[in-house]
Known about the structure:
Layout: E1 2-5, E2 8-15, E3 32-38, E4 52-62, E5 65-69, E6 88-94, E7 97-105, E8 119-127, E9 134-135, E10 153-156
Antiparallel strand pairs: 1-2, 2-7, 3-4, 3-8, 4-5, 6-7, 8-9, 8-10
Amino acid sequence: DLAWNEEGILIDIVFDKPFEEALYPKFSEGDAVEIFIDTRDRKSAGFATRFCHHFLFLPVPCQGIAAQELTRFRTEETHPLCDPGLLKNETTFYKKGYAMHLGIPSECLHGFDPTAFDRMGFTYRLHRLKGAPQYFSADASHFSLEQHPKFWASFNLMNLSK
């Protein structure tokens, strides 16, 4: 599930397998979630712009890391990386799986202005210990997902309260 308001974005992900292990810095070899957001959904750009974000969330902290922004930019297209302490990352464990409740506040999303830009680029990559990654919107086995936001899905930010 994904929800938004002016204060940020909330994401809930349910895993139908038990948690195994989180690793850092080699997070892609364990259980981990990567979230990619383009606050302006600029499909014409052939590279990550300053409106693009790449976040990492681990089901349990590993080496003191539970969540952080990993965005890498071209020199002329940058924004300060967000304070990891602002990211929400809560995991609930069940016998046969777990759920991650993630929050990215608006101050961590450069250019996030839903009143002016009602679309957002979005994708994710889920990692599993000893398993192939799972992608949303594009399988990145032949290109760098981090650097090609034109392949990310487009979401319309609808205000249902009106």
